[in-house]
Every structure is written in C-alpha cells, then in structure tokens.
Amino acid sequence: MFWLSILVASVVAVDVIVQCIYVRLVLRIFETKPPFSVPPVPRDPAAEEVSFQTRDGITLRGSIHFNGQSVPRGVILFCPELEGSHWSASIYARGLLEAGFKVVAFDFRNQGESGSLQGYSPLHWATEFEVEDALSALRFIASRPDLNHLPLGVMGVSRGSTPALIAAARSERVKAVFCEGAYSTDALLVHFISRWATLYVPRVFLPLLPMWHIRLTSVLVRWTSQLLRKRPYVVLENWLQLLRNRSVLLVAGERDNYVHPDVGRHLYRRLDSPRAKLWLVPAAKHNRARHVAPIEYDRRISDFFDTSLDPRETLSNQRPHLKVTGAAIGGDLLLK
Description:
The chain folds into two domains: 2-30 and 187-229, no CATH class; 48-184 and 235-335, 3-Layer(aba) Sandwich (Rossmann fold), CATH 3.40.50.1820. It is 38% helix and 15% strand. The protein contains eleven helices and nine strands. The protein has helices spanning 2-30, 89-92, 94-98, 128-143, 161-170, 185-196, 211-229, 237-240, 261-271, 289-292, 294-308; strands at residues 48-53, 59-65, 75-79, 102-106, 152-157, 174-180, 247-253, 276-281, 323-324. The chain has a nine-stranded mixed sheet with strand order 1-2-4-3-5-6-7-8-9, sandwiched between helices.
C-alpha cells in the first residue's frame, strides 16, 4: 500500500510538471495576436454617426445605417471583428440594408474610433469588456425612440460573435443572433493544442494523451493568462443554454484556417436548440463567406432575420439536420 501511494504521488507530481511545461509553452501562443489583415472600409456619408458611453465610462462610437426607403423591418446590432470597423456593417450587412432593416454598428473599446481603456490591450479572446460594450450598444438602442420599438436582432463577426451571443443571452429583448466565424476560447484553444501537439510531444506518446488532459491544459492557460493580464475572459459555453428559445444562425467557412469548422459544429451542438442552424460555406476562409457567395449570403441573412423577428414566428419547426453544403460531417475531436 505504501509503494502504491508513492507511485500515485509520483505520477501526479510528474503530471503537474508536464502541465506546467505545457501551460508555459501554450501561453505564449495564446497571447500572441494572429496576423489579421482587415481591409479598411470607407465611411458611409448616408449613415448617422453616433456615440454612447459604457457603464465604466468608455465612449464608444458607431453609426446607424438605413436606406430610408421603407418602414424599418427591424433593427440589428452589428458587432465587428477584431481590428475591424463599424463601417464594415455596410459590407457584411448589405443584405439587411437592402431588405429594409436598420443596422446599428459600433467599435469596441480600444478599437477603431471608440475610446480606450488605459492599460488594456485587446486580443482575439473576448473578455467581459467586449460584452459590456455590446450591452451598452443594446442600451443605446433602447434609449432611442426611433429604434426601441423595432424587433431586435444581433449580428457578430469573428471575435464580435462572442459578445454578440452573450449580450443576446443576457437581454430577453433580442430575438435572433447571426454570427460568422464564431468561436469560444476553450473550443478553439483545444483545437489548436491538438493540432500543434506534435511540436511539443513525441508522436509516439500522442495516443496516450487523453482529451481531458488537453482540455485541462486549455483551461489552465486561460486562467493563467487572465490572472497575469487581470482581464476576465468569457466562457461562451456557459451562456449558450440561455439562447435555446432564440433563433441562432452560425456561418462557418470550410477553408477557415483561423476557426476550424469543427468549432462551429461544437457551438451548434452546445446550443442544442430547434431554432439553431449551421451553414458551412464551401471554399470560404475566415470571415469570407459573403465574398465567396454574396447572393446566397445576403438572401440567407435577410430571410433569417425577417422570419426570426416576425412576431408570428413560432416554435413549430423541428430542429433541422446540420446544414452542410459541399461536404459531409466528420468526426469532431472537440465533442468527444
């Protein structure tokens, strides 16, 4: 019994050492911002430029887009990607504008034209700061007499998808959420740890590395980073269950090198809702679904919000099968 205790203690000690080494190696990658190349979008002279404050005193700036040719069919809050701009709403949400929706877009703090929080360097991992910014934008919409009576939806792109989904979960007035390139911190980190494991672990030992060990490493990396940076990362999965009574459409590119389609599948399954859909776009890279299929993209997004924000819409529809175009669903490492 004594020798068994020594053996167990030794195994635990070795595992702790291994985890510390893994966390240190992965942490450097975790806190390195990918080389995004977000093309600038020109100002829209027809849009109304606006500003509002967050509860912690940061001034956010944005714009309201509307073609003005008909009665608005609803209002959609647009949350841009990291290093993106609120002006990009005129590109991503063009189908909504042509369909007669109003689109309210804004820049997150420390990004674009918005004010900055001193000492905060935003990464591609969403924190409570970005969620507060999205909630502040929803409060701004609620304060405007020309907007607060309209059916409300939210749209997010890449990192903007996480605060879009969480803000919608915290606001019962939001009836539908559309996200492109959405990911959660833990799911994406698990994917990349698994993908890069051969850089740090001899290939012969990989079959002995259980998935729970990789998941534990990802959680420890997130905890370590938020302690060092004093920034609370959000765990998207904790909020998805509150969206089961809302309409959610996730869009993922099948050639996305930043956010693998398996991550989109993971979020879709975690939603576990008859009102959730996933559209996998063949040949599309990260945030490039509209570039690849502009007509279908505009049609899908306008149809989605038109149906979801219709007060006559009910829960009578059965949950659809995973929507796949051009490829079959394979095994998902994240979901085992």
